[in-house]
Amino acid sequence: MNMRTFAELTGLTPYTLRYYEKIGLLKGVQRNDSGHRVFSTKEVKWVEFIIRLKETGMPLEQILHYSELREQGEETILARQRMLEVHRKALKNKLKSQMKHLSALDSKIEFYKKHT
């Protein structure tokens, strides 16, 4: 698929996708005879995972490290697993904190509802 279709599927801009390729998050992107990038479903799944990591708060630097480990192959599976476990723990702690904030807001809203 071409850049436009790939961008639409992933929800990222072509600029962002070119940036990801430049910094090494998207490696081995094929090019057609005209030199235009040609993406496959493999890249779609990888970018969806990158987006998930970003949306859950993983810094781009850590995503790059994960990507480098991924490139090294199966011998890095344990290291990647550990990275994701650490990230999951941080995400759970953040969610727990956010739920406390939500509960406090709900309580304040209920207080106002009773007094209006």
TrEMBL record:
InterPro entries: DNA-bd_dom_put_sf (IPR009061), MerR-type_HTH_dom (IPR000551), MerR_fam (IPR047057). The keyword DNA-binding applies. Keywords: DNA-binding. It holds the Pfam family MerR_1. Residues 1-69 form the HTH merR-type domain. This is MerR family transcriptional regulator. It comes from Vibrio algarum. The lineage of its organism: Bacteria, Pseudomonadati, Pseudomonadota, Gammaproteobacteria, Vibrionales.
